[in-house]
Amino acid sequence: MAADSIVKRLKAPGALARGRLADRAFFIATFIFAGLVLLIVAAIFIELAVMSWPSLIKFGPRFITSSDWDPVAGKFGALPLIFGTVASSVIALLLAVPLGLGVAVFLSEVSPPWLKTPVGFLVELLAGIPSVIYGLWGIFVLAPLVMNHLAPWLNHYFGWLPLFRGTSYGVGLLTAGLILTLMVLPFITSVSREILATVPRDQREAALALGMTRWEVIRHAVLPYGRVGIIGAVILALGRALGETMAVTMVIGNTPRISASLFNPAYSMAAVIANEFTEASSRLYVSALIEVGLVLFGVTFLVNAAARLLIWRVGGGQKRARV
Amino acid sequence: MNPYNRRRLVSRIMLGLCAASVVVVVVPLLLIIGYLIYQGISSVNLALFTQMPKPVGESGGGMANAIAGSLLLLGLASGFGMVVGVMTGIYLAEFGDNKFGFIVRFLSETLNSTPSIIIGIFAYTIIVAPMRHFSALAGGFALGVIMVPIIARTTEDMIRLVPTSLREASLALGVNKWRTIFRVVLRTASPGILTGIMLALARAAGETAPLLFTALGSRFWSLSVSEPISSLPVQIYTYAISPYEDWHRQAWAGALILIGIVVLIGLAARFLAARSSLVRGARRR
What we know:
With 323 residues, chain A is an all-alpha fold.
């Protein structure tokens, strides 16, 4: 009975053509939505460029070379913001790359199986904590810790370095860098872990058969194989750190100045937008803030694009390595 | 020391350092979670869920409007994110093995790692600026844009996991391609796709930066999409940087609620993924 009705439907005049039309319409619908993603990214660029136009033509290249950020006087030089963003990210990567890689190596090469799941779960949990909560913890726990214990200790033993001169008020570059470290760590760990998982077993077994110790296997057979992917993971983490907003805003001190000491308060590109956007009173001020956004978007876009292509290259193309 | 012993020693030390790094990473995490629970539990009370914020200076009050606001924003965001994300995922999996597919996949990944504050500016320029006021709609849109790449990626992955034989069986019965995709492919892949949607929701629920100058925040009860609206993350932020002791207390309580929501969504997503036969099959392979 059911088969009869299907046959009848198929034999009806124009059924096949209607079906083809529906398929075509479906293809076009999905195509439009996929195109929308492309359009959104393009629109972000265009909107940011258009909205920052007044500032772009007024300041030109001076915008990123001048270190005078004084909205009251109408002076907008983004150099201190760029400095804060880059410096806090560099601190974070210096600490997070060895640590994150260590955890990834431990989980994929050393760990007894029963330990893998809980540690992996904890690391994933760390990645899922919203950035505003890191910021909250940073203000009330980490900043006092840095002010009362870490900074005096660093100053006492390494005070001869300009990096650790002066006294810390809790908030500042160092605290921002530490918070960022915690935030990019799980990221480096999970991506590197995926990369290490793509290293073939033979590679390890061949090295072991040559009489290498377990560390030598990792050092000479596993890590070199995953090198490009790990570099990709690190660049991806850099992109994260550069664009991180809330946690940094809450602990960096929000002072647009460049100084050698990590104890001093600073400012980052994302933080200045978060803090000042709703207060920006003049058209020029708003457009200067959007230009900061444009610079940030441009930089993170390039960084992420490079990382993505690297990871895809080693992961066997777009469809295999989804990390 | 002979070379072999030296090599063994180096190996021990390096492996020990790897293990030590696990400790260094896990301890702060436990500190954060522990402190959050310690501070949060002592501050969470019923008033937090049922009452409105009190004026500055009066202690007490709650975050009822922020919780409701967050839910409304997430609802708006999923409306946008799910439609665009799932359709994009279908395109990428079914028709995306070409240059256009490559570009969309690439830009979608880049969008995923774009700083969320940039998405906030974008929503501001295309919704807030023309409408001339802050609105829940703009906030929902910003969160929706953040959800799209996550949903698109999982949808594509899950559809690709559906066995070709299933698809062919449906096509052989004379079912149209689009109907095959909706009735057979999507239905098979749906637990996995749902997992992706929940992961995207968990991420969007904690986002603060894109809401600062789109939904803005508000101290009043509002469920209107064209008005500024309060949200949990923004409320936590505002309270955290305020000088009032009682607001700090509420910020911790709010943070505990927020992390509770995020973890619950995350666990539900894991549960779904674990039940999905497709994902299990892919793991085994």
